[in-house]
Amino acid sequence: MEARNDRENLKKLGPGDELKFVIGNRMDFEYAKGVLDEFRKYFSAKTPVHFSPVFGELEPKLLAQWILEERLEVRLQLPLHKILWDPNQRGV
Q1: Beta-carbon neighbour count of residue 33 at 10 Å?
Q2: What gap in Å lies between CA 35 and CA 27, rounded to an integer?
Q3: Distances, alpha carbon 44 to alpha carbons 11, 12, 77, in Å
Q4: How far apart are CA 57 and CA 49, in angstroms?
Q5: What is the full per-residue pLDDT of the chain (92 aa) written as tens digits?
Q6: How far apart (Å, rounded) are the C-alpha atoms in residues 78 and 59?
Q7: Residues 45, 73: Cα–Cα separation, whole Å
Q8: DSSP label at residue 54
Q9: Residue 41: which residues within 8 A CB-CB, separation 6 or more?
Q10: Residues in CB range of 62: below 8 A, 6 or more apart
Q11: By C-alpha distance, which of 17, 16, 20 is closest to 5?
Q12: Which residues contact 80 (CB under 8 A, 6 or more apart)?
């Protein structure tokens, strides 16, 4: 999905905006870290940043471990709609 992102939009984040990265593997994690390093100066330190594991591809515990090891100031966001209901169910 990297090629479909308009990274210039990160310079336009304002109060009330949040940023979410969906992480499927270590390469995605490193990419997200790089984006944060490059663009953090453009948005507030109070802007919430979420890292969410791709359901069924990356164990949430492993993503949490990476976040802690790197001491990142991000929130771990679990895909609750996939955990609480059948992952194939639509409209929940």
Answers
A1: 17
A2: 12
A3: 10, 11, 20
A4: 21
A5: 667 778 888 888 888 899 999 999 999 999 999 999 988 888 777 889 999 999 999 999 999 999 999 999 999 999 888 888 888 888 77
A6: 10
A7: 9
A8: P
A9: none
A10: 53
A11: 20
A12: none
What residues does each domain of the chain span?
21-47+57-78
What is the chain's length? 92
Residues 51, 67: contact at Cβ < 8 Å?
yes
* Tokens of residue 46, six digits: 């109070």
What beta strand segments (E) does 14-92 contain? Answer: 19-23, 49-53, 75-76
What are the structure tokens assigned to 79, written together? 């895909």
Query: What's the predicted TM-score (pTM) here?
Result: 0.85
Determine whether 61 is exposed, middle or buried from the number of CB atoms within 10 Å of its CB (0-12, 13-18, 19+): exposed
Position 83: which residue type? I
